[in-house]
Amino acid sequence: MINRTFTELASMCGGTLNEAAKKRGGDRFCGTTTDSRRATEGQLFIPLAGERFDGHQYTADCFDRGIAIAFWQQDRLVPEELSSRPLVFVPDTLAALQKLASSYRRQLPVRIIGITGSNGKTTTKDLVAAVLAVRFRVHKTEGNLNNHIGLPLTILAMDENVEYAVLEMGMSGFGEISLLTRIAEPQIAMITNIGDAHLLQLGSREGIAKAKLEIAEGVTPGGVLLINGDEPLLTGPTGQAALASMAEDVKVQTFGFTESCDWRAEPVSIDVQSSAFRLYPALNSTADTMLLELPVPGRHNISNAAAAAAAGRLCGLTEEQIAEGMAGTRLTGMRIESLRAFNGATLLNDAYNANPTAVRAAISLVSELTGFSRKWLVLADMLELGPEEQKLHYEIGAMLRPGSVDRLLTYGPLSWHTAEGAKQHLGEENVRHFEDKAALNAYLREHLATEDLVLVKGSRGMRMEETVQALER
Fold first, then answer.
1. Across residues 27-47, what is the average pLDDT?
2. All residues at 6 or more sequence positions from 77 whose CB lies less than 8 Å from its CB, including other chains
3. Please, which residues bridge with residue 167 across strands?
4. What CATH architecture does domain 108-327 belong to?
5. How far apart are CA 376 and CA 453, in angstroms?
6. Fewer Cβ atoms within 10 Å of its own Cβ: the N or the C terminal residue of the chain?
7. The domain 337-471 belongs to what CATH superfamily?
8. In the sheet that 87-90 helps form, which strands lie side by side, from edge to edge?
9. pLDDT per residue over 50-62, tens digit each?
10. Fold match between 108-327 and 337-471?
């Protein structure tokens, strides 16, 4: 993690030391935190201010916990109890955090891989990090620290001997990915796909594509942008217009399933715990065709893995190293996590989040899996979809067909429309809607058989992991 003197800190963040800090300019801090509850000895405390909170009021407590120094937004009066404490005056503490991270990143020889996309970016991040870790010292985004606060903190947490950092970049509106990519300056950037998340904020899939393509703005000269070649919004006019802002010598390569992709994946097998595929490398690559297996099911995850394998090749890894890393990947929880229900039934926990693209991928996965007596799909509301949310929920239900899914259970007011859409093909006897999660859980526990499969999915706010927990042993 970052370890610098007070004087170096002021220079890196564009701040000014107070008298107490100037007298101790050669003293060092190690690590950063924005959470006063987690402040520890020797750290830099960064008090952020929002509409309902102000971290400045906890700064004295942080010094009592042993922090070395703190940022202080210069439009605020310094209380008497802090007058003798080392502070760095900055115009804005959030902007100073971001500038500090950018400065630290530029001081290190680390190579950055930045990943964004509507779906699959966390899985892809885990796959890329696992592949690279076979040969290199790797740092990656933990949890959901992928926004304008989390990404800078992730960078500042890197050790100076890290060779590759795999950074996830999330967003909810225009300009956010642009900020993150300019802080990170990736040598390799990826866009996993363009889905329906954040339609409420961005208005259309075209808007989402433009927002995701902002990642190209920060790619360093000589770098590579890997985009999903199966997505016309990335390869067509929308993508071409957005890519005009890239450095001239940045290469664009595609991954996916279509013949035109530079890195083409061909599924070999998909079961409840894993997927296997062949990856045909770019035409101008000296790499051989690779046969790879990943410990997660789904055609959409094969696409993510193709991007990860391409990144591994671009970083100089062999086929054997890529295969070893991919097979040993440990994925972040609640992303098609294979579990056992209380009675031995197969349970797929995909409850981390949901939007129409992700739900369609889950439905496709369930339809591909065989060997089960019945296949249950449990779907909760998809949030932040804007004015067409009811229509989008109905369309998800209407795409279900007998054979692909045997039973559909829905939960939440919007998912009532999913149930209505499903009845035309699945039949009313195979579709049931719940407004009470406890009732849904009880129904499943009563009717789920040992030989069944059940996949649970919903937006984060629906907390469908509670249903998963109710079904576990």
1. 95
2. none
3. 114
4. 3-Layer(aba) Sandwich (3.40)
5. 6
6. C
7. Mur ligase, C-terminal domain (3.90.190.20)
8. 16-17, 87-90, 69-73, 44-45, 32-33
9. 888 899 999 999 9
10. no
